[in-house]
């Protein structure tokens, strides 16, 4: 097997074996604690610009299938695993993970002590890293000068408007790096979904006469997509709105709150979140490196609805006097537990209530 090296910006070097595409990459190194769902994670556009360390020791044991893609190609820059499965077995599989990685242009490294690597990331925080076939002064110099992209949402969003038509309630979905599972969750509820690019103007969205607005997940720093804030501010005044993940952070920014970068983020499918008013606990799927600053909410019209039980970060918000809310986690949960899928139903109920109010006030 060909050797490959993982080089961290703090100087650590991990040696392993190459698989997937034969290319060198640089990206932000993050870890994912999920025990399964590697295909959905790798194709989740929220991972754009990131290299994923899978903490579960065996990855690829059920191959890759046609149904579990969250986008058409790998979103992650590379993957780091302890062991890559040599003989995957599943009745749905099309090919092995290494075969698909090679065909799709994504490099990987196996044979890494991912437990030690994750501990290092927890101590130092997420870091820039390089995946290379050899380590020299040029590699180290390039990594030192490497800058994370500021255009990840612009690169991830749809370039054209499109529709997933039904005769149900009409949802305008602004795509900041959309997961296919959000579309599946809405389709299951009979919603007529119109998808718009991240930089769409509010007038364009309102011209489609939607019943509700959904702000999708996406990659990177929410401040880099601040151009969407005026659109969100205009839309929430007129139409019921729901935000997910990056959409949650942008919703917060649009209403006067602030965001900050977490030391190593939340990435996995077992994060316990407390719904404060309902006094219920949900296990959730999460993938984010930024969070809403609770202290910044004091002079806003935002109310905290959910919080993470371990670090008490803000996981949900509601806007006073408007039909608008957001959550940091993924209620579509692909992969992950379906505890919070009811939030899509709450969104549709909110839309129905808003229509009744409009009719009564007419």
Automatic annotation (TrEMBL):
<dbReference type="Pfam" id="PF00988">
    <property type="entry name" value="CPSase_sm_chain"/>
</dbReference>
<comment type="function">
    <text>Small subunit of the glutamine-dependent carbamoyl phosphate synthetase (CPSase). CPSase catalyzes the formation of carbamoyl phosphate from the ammonia moiety of glutamine, carbonate, and phosphate donated by ATP, constituting the first step of 2 biosynthetic pathways, one leading to arginine and/or urea and the other to pyrimidine nucleotides. The small subunit (glutamine amidotransferase) binds and cleaves glutamine to supply the large subunit with the substrate ammonia.</text>
</comment>
<comment type="subunit">
    <text>Composed of two chains; the small (or glutamine) chain promotes the hydrolysis of glutamine to ammonia, which is used by the large (or ammonia) chain to synthesize carbamoyl phosphate. Tetramer of heterodimers (alpha,beta)4.</text>
</comment>
<feature type="binding site">
    <location>
        <position position="249"/>
    </location>
    <ligand>
        <name>L-glutamine</name>
    </ligand>
</feature>
<feature type="binding site">
    <location>
        <position position="218"/>
    </location>
    <ligand>
        <name>L-glutamine</name>
    </ligand>
</feature>
<feature type="binding site">
    <location>
        <position position="46"/>
    </location>
    <ligand>
        <name>L-glutamine</name>
    </ligand>
</feature>
<feature type="binding site">
    <location>
        <position position="287"/>
    </location>
    <ligand>
        <name>L-glutamine</name>
    </ligand>
</feature>
<comment type="similarity">
    <text>Belongs to the CarA family.</text>
</comment>
<dbReference type="InterPro" id="IPR036480">
    <property type="entry name" value="CarbP_synth_ssu_N_sf"/>
</dbReference>
<keyword id="KW-0067">ATP-binding</keyword>
<feature type="binding site">
    <location>
        <position position="220"/>
    </location>
    <ligand>
        <name>L-glutamine</name>
    </ligand>
</feature>
<dbReference type="InterPro" id="IPR017926">
    <property type="entry name" value="GATASE"/>
</dbReference>
<dbReference type="InterPro" id="IPR050472">
    <property type="entry name" value="Anth_synth/Amidotransfase"/>
</dbReference>
<dbReference type="Pfam" id="PF00117">
    <property type="entry name" value="GATase"/>
</dbReference>
<comment type="pathway">
    <text>Amino-acid biosynthesis; L-arginine biosynthesis; carbamoyl phosphate from bicarbonate: step 1/1.</text>
</comment>
<keyword id="KW-0315">Glutamine amidotransferase</keyword>
<dbReference type="InterPro" id="IPR002474">
    <property type="entry name" value="CarbamoylP_synth_ssu_N"/>
</dbReference>
<feature type="active site">
    <location>
        <position position="332"/>
    </location>
</feature>
<feature type="region of interest" description="CPSase">
    <location>
        <begin position="1"/>
        <end position="170"/>
    </location>
</feature>
<keyword id="KW-0436">Ligase</keyword>
<keyword id="KW-0028">Amino-acid biosynthesis</keyword>
<dbReference type="InterPro" id="IPR006274">
    <property type="entry name" value="CarbamoylP_synth_ssu"/>
</dbReference>
<feature type="active site">
    <location>
        <position position="330"/>
    </location>
</feature>
<feature type="binding site">
    <location>
        <position position="289"/>
    </location>
    <ligand>
        <name>L-glutamine</name>
    </ligand>
</feature>
<keyword id="KW-0055">Arginine biosynthesis</keyword>
<feature type="binding site">
    <location>
        <position position="290"/>
    </location>
    <ligand>
        <name>L-glutamine</name>
    </ligand>
</feature>
<comment type="pathway">
    <text>Pyrimidine metabolism; UMP biosynthesis via de novo pathway; (S)-dihydroorotate from bicarbonate: step 1/3.</text>
</comment>
<feature type="binding site">
    <location>
        <position position="246"/>
    </location>
    <ligand>
        <name>L-glutamine</name>
    </ligand>
</feature>
<keyword id="KW-0665">Pyrimidine biosynthesis</keyword>
<protein>
    <recommendedName>
        <fullName>Carbamoyl phosphate synthase small chain</fullName>
        <ecNumber>6.3.5.5</ecNumber>
    </recommendedName>
</protein>
<dbReference type="InterPro" id="IPR035686">
    <property type="entry name" value="CPSase_GATase1"/>
</dbReference>
<keyword id="KW-0547">Nucleotide-binding</keyword>
<feature type="domain" description="Carbamoyl-phosphate synthase small subunit N-terminal">
    <location>
        <begin position="2"/>
        <end position="132"/>
    </location>
</feature>
<dbReference type="InterPro" id="IPR029062">
    <property type="entry name" value="Class_I_gatase-like"/>
</dbReference>
<feature type="active site" description="Nucleophile">
    <location>
        <position position="245"/>
    </location>
</feature>
